[in-house]
Amino acid sequence: MNEEVRFVIDEAEEGMQHAIGHLDREFQKIRAGKASPAMLEGVKVDYYGTMTPIDQVSNINTPDPRQIIVQPWEKSMLAPIEKAIMAANLGFNPQNNGEVLRIAVPPLTEERRRDLVKKAKAEVENAKVTIRNIRRSAMDSGKKLEKEGVPEDEIKQLEKEIQALTDKFTEKVDKLFDLKEKDIMTV
Fold it and tell me: What is the second-level CATH architecture of the domain 3-29+109-185?
């Protein structure tokens, strides 16, 4: 197999791997009843006029599965961090004791669990669409290579390998979803 064909396959595999990595990060944001520092990912704090990620102005711990503790590096940042968490609309009500913010993570209701499964399913669909788009662009690259004089049998082999990659990564996405669904629905 020539170098250009191998490059198309490697590029497609790398793109699909990135799609899986992104899905994994999105799944970490979907809580399954257990407290996790990732739940506060994306919260931005007004740090002296600059919107800064919460993990860059404080230490975030989970001492037990039902609680998150946010300890700012500067005491003066307690109020802005509390305000940012409230503004993020995550459904958390931080308790300020003057030293740290304690966030009690409420147990999930059955209805909320189903909503989280729907959200996870939407992320899975996004990942599958990304994988299919990568397959389509790899197939297009194969057609361009064929026009440039790469033998037809190599292009057929390329298309087979790309389809096999697509199937493999789609299966991985489904397995990740099954695990996440089980995690969310387990009380």
Answer: Orthogonal Bundle (1.10)
Residues of the chain with CATH 3.30.1360.40: 37-104
Q: Which two tokens stand for residue 130?
A: 């990304």
Query: What is this structure's pTM?
Result: 0.73
CATH topology for 37-104 is Gyrase A; domain 2 (3.30.1360)
Place of tokens 């979907």: 30
> How would you classify residue 10: left for phi > 0, otherwise alpha for psi between -120 and 50, otherwise beta?
alpha
**Model confidence over 114-158: pLDDT tens digits?**
888 998 999 999 999 999 999 999 999 999 988 988 888 988 999
Domain with CATH 1.10.132.20 in the chain: 3-29+109-185
